C-alpha cells in the first residue's frame, strides 16, 4: 500500500505565512477528510502537495518517489469557484478531458477511452445529459460530471476540494458512495470538507488544520474537544462521539 508523505511543508503568500511545518501521511485504502476553519489553509495544502503552488520543505512523496514526478496518477477536482463554468464544453467533452493524459493531445480517442468515459458518467448517473453544456447544469450535476472525469482518468490518487458545496443530498450520497468504492479499491482519496455535521462520519481518517497540523489520525482520535478548540478557537460545540455543531 502506498502513501503520501508530507514533511515539514510550509507555504508563504508574499509576507503572509499560510502554512507552517506541515507533516502528515495520507494512506491509501482510507477515506481521508481535511477539515479546519475558513482560511486554515486546506486548499493551499492540496495545491502545495500537487506542486500547483511553491512550497518550502521536503518534497512531498508518493511511495518512494516525489509526487510531482507522478502527477499523471492524480485526479484533482478544484473548488467550484475556480472552474470556468462559461467554458463552451458539453458534459461529454469535460469527461473526455480526463482521458487526455492517457491518449495524448491531438490524438483520436480510442473506443476503450470512450467506454471509460461513458462508464464514469453512468456511475454518477449523468449519462443522459452527455450533450448538455456544462454551464447549464445544477451545482450538484456539475460536481458529478467532474467526478466522472476523475474516474475516467484511472488515477491512483483522488483529491477533491470542497465537493459538497452547493450540492443536493442525492449528489452528496453518490459522491460519498464513490469515494468509498475508490478507497476500498486501495486508492488514496483526500477530500477537503467544510461541513462538520453528519457527513464527517463517512471519513476514516481526518487531517485537522489551522495553518499547522492540529491533529492527523483516525477520525475518533481527531474529533475531541481539545483538538477542536485548538483549531476553531471555541467556535464549535462538541456533543459526543462525532456530533459537532458550529457555535
Ligand atoms: N493566492 C493567494 N495570495 C495570497 N493569499 C492567499 C492566496 N490564496 C490563499 N490565500 C490566503 O491563505 C490563507 C489560506 O487560504 P486557503 O484558501 O488555503 O484556506 P481554506 O482553509 O481552504 O479556506 P476556506 O475554507 O475558506 O476555503 C487564507 O488566509 C487566504 O486568504
UniProtKB/TrEMBL annotation:
* Keywords, alphabetical: ATP-binding, Nucleotide-binding, Transport
Superkingdom classification of source: Bacteria
Pfam families from the entry?
A: ABC_tran
GO MF entry, a single one: ATP binding
Query: What PROSITE patterns does the annotation carry?
Result: ABC_TRANSPORTER_1, ABC_TRANSPORTER_2
Ranges for the ABC transporter domain?
A: 4-236
Q: Give coiled-coil spans as residue ranges.
A: none
Does the record bear Lipoprotein in its keywords?
no
Task: Please give the family membership noted in the entry.
Answer: Belongs to the ABC transporter superfamily.
Name by which UniProt lists this protein: Metal ABC transporter ATP-binding protein
Q: Which organism is it from?
A: Spirulina subsalsa FACHB-351
Q: Mind giving the lineage of the organism this protein is from?
A: Bacteria, Bacillati, Cyanobacteriota, Cyanophyceae, Spirulinales
Amino acid at each position: 500500500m502506498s502513501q503520501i508523505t508530507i514533511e515539514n511543508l510550509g507555504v508563504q503568500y508574499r509576507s503572509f505565512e499560510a502554512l507552517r511545518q506541515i507533516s502528515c501521511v495520507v494512506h491509501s485504502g482510507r477515506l481521508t477528510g481535511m477539515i479546519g476553519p475558513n482560511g486554515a489553509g486546506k486548499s493551499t495544502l492540496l495545491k502545495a502537495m500537487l506542486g500547483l503552488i511553491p512550497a518550502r520543505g521536503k518534497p512531498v512523496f508518493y511511495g518512494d518517489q516525489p509526487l510531482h514526478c507522478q502527477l499523471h496518477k492524480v485526479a484533482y477536482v478544484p473548488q467550484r469557484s475556480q472552474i470556468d463554468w462559461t467554458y463552451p464544453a458539453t458534459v461529454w467533452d469535460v469527461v473526455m478531458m480526463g482521458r487526455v493524459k492517457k491518449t495524448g493531445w491531438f490524438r483520436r480517442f480510442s473506443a476503450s477511452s470512450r467506454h471509460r468515459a461513458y462508464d464514469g458518467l453512468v456511475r454518477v448517473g449523468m449519462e443522459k445529459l452527455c450533450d448538455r453544456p456544462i454551464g447549464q447544469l445544477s451545482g450538484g450535476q456539475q460536481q458529478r460530471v467532474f467526478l466522472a472525469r476523475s474516474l475516467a482518468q484511472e488515477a491512483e490518487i483522488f483529491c477533491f476540494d470542497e465537493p459538497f458545496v452547493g450540492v443536493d443530498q442525492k449528489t452528496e450520497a453518490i459522491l460519498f458512495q464513490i469515494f468509498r468504492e475508490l478507497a476500498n479499491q486501495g486508492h488514496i482519496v483526500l477530500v477537503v470538507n467544510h461541513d462538520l455535521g453528519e457527513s464527517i462520519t463517512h471519513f476514516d481518517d481526518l487531517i485537522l488544520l489551522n495553518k499547522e497540523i492540529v491533529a492527523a489520525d483516525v477520525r475518533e482520535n481527531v474529533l475531541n474537544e481539545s483538538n477542536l478548540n485548538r483549531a476553531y478557537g471555541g467556535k464549535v460545540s462538541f456533543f459526543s462521539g462525532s456530533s459537532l455543531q458550529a457555535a
